[in-house]
Amino acid sequence: MDTISIDLNKISTAGEAPVNEPERQYYFMAKLKEWVKQKSEELGRPLTFITQTFGCQMNAKDSEKLAGILEEIGYVETDTEEADFVIYNTCTVRENANTRVYGRLGFLNSLKKKNPDMLIALCGCMMQEDVVVEKIRKSYRFVDIIFGTHNIFKLAELLYNRLQSKRMIIDIWQGTDQIVEDLPSERKYKFKAGVNIMYGCNNFCSYCIVPYVRGRERSRNPEDIIKEIKDMVADGVVEIMLLGQNVNSYGKTLDKPMTFAELLLEIEKIEGLERIRFMTSHPKDLSDSLIEVMKNSKKICNHLHLPVQSGSTKLLKAMNRKYTKEQYLDLVDRIKTAMPNISLTTDIIIGFPGETEEDFLDTLDVVRKVRYDSAYTFLYSKRTGTPAAVMETQVEEEVAKERFNRLLKEVQDISADLTKRDEGTVQTALVEEINNQDSSLLTGRLSNNVLVHFPGCKELIGKLVDVKLAECKGFYYLGELVE
Ligand code: 5AD
Ligand code: SF4
């Protein structure tokens, strides 16, 4: 499933590669298509690939782009790492993400010994760190290609270079202001898709490595976004998730500046599109006009992810979040006044340097006052190069863990309580898949992001159906189709 259709057979591979993008990549893709065909004929089977995504929805979207390029040149996707081409799209937001990648690399090496033609590429956020690349170059010589977050569009060229040179290819860009449009992208689901609206982040929260590895904020042109969504809708998509590190500051860097609220109004007009989601929102940039647009929209889902990170004004200042506890709570009040039923979710970091019991109680207080439908809770992880990493008062692990458990219990109790509030009502669900534990059931997603499982046939997948939420099971529902 591509969002663009290029006929690679019509691309000339004679002569030098074009300088401009995306034509340059089309040229390498055409060359590789011939190579993949030849190689498959030699082997008597198709060449296979797998992309493994570590990390967030941005990475998942990037992996779909990588897969789109590989499918275009004739590779076939598989679900095992015993493949001809394995790509790890890495994350580095917390240390344990890095640890997982190193662990898995050992296993890949053993697979490569069995299949010497196997190619291994590493890309994504972790590769933007010099120490990581240095370590892989020295100790993981079996890796074939290393690239970063700014040049994933170059996959075809990098693969071509690898095949020509037989040496490890390393291509990491420190930053970019380039946005390359019109490259293929696979879609995991036919009926829903992520759409990048901006890249990078300018916020420099003091614990966060993202601005260093994903670069400065860049917004895509609204025309490109709208066109991509229209093409997706024509191809069966009914729900989109607009992606950006901080969607509320969308459009500031455009030649003709535009707000996120204005972009949403344009997207709302797209006929055939039924549901709009977006993430992530930074509280400091969430405008009253966005609240108004959400309130009046027929398509924007009844859900807002609004990371608070901490409830302590002192810690929020040290985190460089640019809002106070009171300002956050006031924002939540305004949102709830406009949309009393909205489902709110959040991210919380426990154990940030300098966190005292009093700071922690402020966080618990916010959790109790806001009553989140769910909260992603993280133990603070020290990221080298960020201001927080050199703050002196690092919190002891034991203390942080104990607070973490207390927070988790509070979050879960509230969450179970809130989910129950819709029990007995009829709601619209987008049917996503056959339930992976009981194949007589389908799994659908409600507007507020909660899942419901109900009996039904697979022909309903991708459709919006009305479901009675018969029984709340904590974080999900068992339901019945309403004919
Ligand atoms: N330690 C722990 N959690 C972090 N996050 C970002 N950086 C760190 C870190 N160094 C969390 C934030 C963010 C989410 C995506 O990851 O809560 O919102
Ligand atoms: Fe990281 Fe803050 Fe940017 Fe989110 S807004 S990506 S937490 S720096």
Characterization of the model:
The protein is of the alpha/beta class. 35% of the residues lie in helices and 20% in strands. The longest helix is centred in the last third of the chain and has 23 residues, at 397-419. The model has no long low-confidence stretch (mean pLDDT 95). The strands form five sheets. A six-stranded parallel beta sheet has the order 2-1-3-4-5-6, sandwiched between helices. The protein has a five-stranded mixed beta barrel with strand order 15-16-17-19-18. α8 packs parallel to α9. The protein folds into three domains: 8-171, 3-Layer(aba) Sandwich (Rossmann fold); 192-419, Alpha-Beta Horseshoe (pyruvate-formate lyase- activating enzyme); 425-481, Nucleic acid-binding proteins (OB fold (Dihydrolipoamide Acetyltransferase, E2P), Beta Barrel). The protein has helices at 23-43, 57-72, 95-114, 130-139, 155-165, 210-214, 222-234, 260-268, 288-296, 313-318, 325-338, 357-370, 397-419, and strands spanning 48-53, 76-77, 85-90, 119-124, 145-147, 169-171, 192-196, 198-199, 218-219, 239-243, 275-279, 303-305, 343-350, 374-379, 426-434, 441-446, 451-455, 464-472, 476-481. Bound molecules: 5'-deoxyadenosine (5AD) and iron/sulfur cluster. Residues 201, 203-205, 208, 210-211, 245-246, 282 line the site of iron/sulfur cluster.
Topology:
Blueprint: H1 23-43, E1 48-53, H2 57-72, E2 76-77, E3 85-90, H3 95-114, E4 119-124, H4 130-139, E5 145-147, H5 155-165, E6 169-171, E7 192-196, E8 198-199, H6 210-214, E9 218-219, H7 222-234, E10 239-243, H8 260-268, E11 275-279, H9 288-296, E12 303-305, H10 313-318, H11 325-338, E13 343-350, H12 357-370, E14 374-379, H13 397-419, E15 426-434, E16 441-446, E17 451-455, E18 464-472, E19 476-481
Parallel strand pairs: 1-2, 1-3, 3-4, 4-5, 5-6, 7-10, 10-11, 12-13, 13-14, 17-19
Antiparallel strand pairs: 8-9, 15-16, 15-18, 16-17, 18-19
This protein binds 5'-deoxyadenosine (5AD) and iron/sulfur cluster (SF4).
5'-deoxyadenosine is lined by residues 93-94, 207-208, 307, 309, 347, 349, 378, 380-381, 383.
